[in-house]
Amino acid sequence: MIKDVTTTLRSVPLRRPWGPDVPANHVIFVEVTLEDGRSGTGISWTPQIGAGAVQALLDTDVREAVAGLPAHPELVWDALSRHLSEAGRGGLVTIAMAGIDLALWDLRCAGRSLAEVLGARRESLPVYGSGVNLHYSLEELVAQAGRWKAEGLPAVKIKVGRPDLAEDVERVAAVREVIGPDTVLMVDANQRWDLHRARRAMAALEPYGLHWIEEPLPADDVAAHVELRRSIGVPVAVGENVYTVHGFRDLLVAGACDVVQPNVVRVGGITPFLRIAELARAFDVPVYPHLLTELSGQLALALPHPAMVEKVEDASLAELGVLAEPYPVAIEGARLRATGHPTRWAR
Known about the structure:
three-stranded antiparallel sheet, 12 strands
């Protein structure tokens, strides 16, 4: 039975800020202690805002709600979701729930790696270079693409959505020139467009052979995603800002996407992530986990469809200094593999 929950908040500076307003990521370490003295640790995470609110929710309502419950991730997740529903079904609520769920999975793993407990279906997966780089100058962007090329990465992703579409075209063209025709290129608009702008942008970017357009529209505008997908030839990827299984269900049933990208923290932890993965499997839609490389990599190794693992330059959990060595995954060349070590947090 769960006896107590304690939290510790750390703000971790980013070596490469994600913009003038995002100089750091915020991690709340969540320790769940059982009546028999065992404990497990998980994290809640926000790249920009809300960390204090998440910690306050964990320290009050969440802590009280889980006290006395058995240390069963699925049971606790469902009970906690019902209890917290008055505060919302996603957002800060599911981010807080992730800390509890990851801590309970840490207890379930009992010193084994998450990849081993889930049952890895493959030995390794390709890694793609990802940049939070919309604020970069063209020269900085080209230099980043050059670093990815030098690493031999098979795929890269850059941000689009500048006010002037001509700038997006210039930047995408420059990156394509650097990485060459054989490297997969994705673009991510981070919800900056409406349907009209998205159609215009995709027409202008068509010559550059895009693998997908990510978050072209507001994440909850299912109807607009359906219309966009019908009118362009580039696959549509969504999900990093979808918080619930029902949200993913609505996208899949509507035929709004070609790829789903749940973030294991934003959806509330490993328990709902696995439910989303099974739902996507029923629609034969691949799952590409979003950010948090060391967690996402272990999850991706266990997915039914092959995937790529996202690695934002200088911003993996290890590079942020919130993981203790030895790390649960290793990136060798352009591929990620599980090491067999458990996930241990450096608080």
